[in-house]
Amino acid sequence: MITLRLPLLGAILPQPQGQKSRPARNSRIFHDPARGPQLRLTSNSRPSGIAEPAAPLCRAIARGLPAMPSFSEEITFSATPIASRLTVNGALRPARNSVNTALIGMPRGTYTQDCQNPTNPAFIAMVETADMGPFRVTGLRPAVRALRRIMDDIQAEQPAIHRVLGSAGMLCCRLVRGSSTSISNHAWGIAVDLTIEGRLDGYNDGLVQRGLVEIYPIFNRHGFYWGAAFPREDSMHFEASDQLVQKWARDGEFGTPASVPPRALTIGDRGPAVLALQMALNRALAPVEIDEDGIFGKDTRAAVLAFQAQRGLTPDGQGSGVVLEALGLK
């Protein structure tokens, strides 16, 4: 038995017409000289007239427990244990358009901002659909199988979150939002967008769902990069890292690579490394300035070419090791 003071609940919640609030079963009212009328109830009872959605709260109070926050609640990164979202993935790098194209091949020939299906038969042969438990996905075969292992670990370590996870898509051939040059890694079926309790985390709003903070280390452990680290924060997004894609290639998942992937940063790349390049170019080329959005597009390439011309370097428009060193980034 736990004593609760609930006189205001019955007063502020609407009552059915002609019905008076009365104590529930397994409860009784008694008078405390210091506090006035008190309602004593067990944890499985609630006052008549309290709306059903309030019942879980009443039970939590009756047990002396705080009401649990929702896993889909969005909070600031400063309210999490994360020191900096830009470095949350450690040594993992986001997957790169140039590496994906060289090792996996192109899913299709053209891309827009709209989601389209792959058209390359060789790529389609590497696609599969599988059940993840709370949802189903279609994606690149090694990515789908890796996601299955991740979901198994989430179920074992965070079962309450596992039950409320959903997917907003995996394979989707389109450009990165807001870009005309960078292809989304969804196009290769190596990225997945997650929902929690049916809700998507807001894009580029500086907030993150509580549940994502709890499970991102599991994705990292399996070689997946968390989109919270993108300059344009995308916390609902997880993708196979550049290192993981290259490991799959070494393991023979894609057959014989079409070409050797470039090491230099180039068109289509994005992430903290591209952001650092853009910031350094702006310092070197001032007052000329490009957007510091972390996406290597046409303007970034033009700025690299301008810097290469300024320093007498080979004008290839790529963020090579020579360029990075000249900019003080190595």
UniProtKB/TrEMBL annotation:
Residues 178-239 form the Peptidase M15C domain. Residues 14-50 are annotated as: Disordered. Residues 270-326 form the Peptidoglycan binding-like domain. It comes from Fertoeibacter niger. Pfam families: Peptidase_M15_4, PG_binding_1. InterPro entries: Peptidase_M15C (IPR039561), Peptidoglycan-bd-like (IPR002477), PGBD-like_sf (IPR036365), PGBDSf (IPR036366), Zn_M74/Hedgehog-like (IPR009045). This is M15 family metallopeptidase. GO terms for molecular function: peptidase activity.
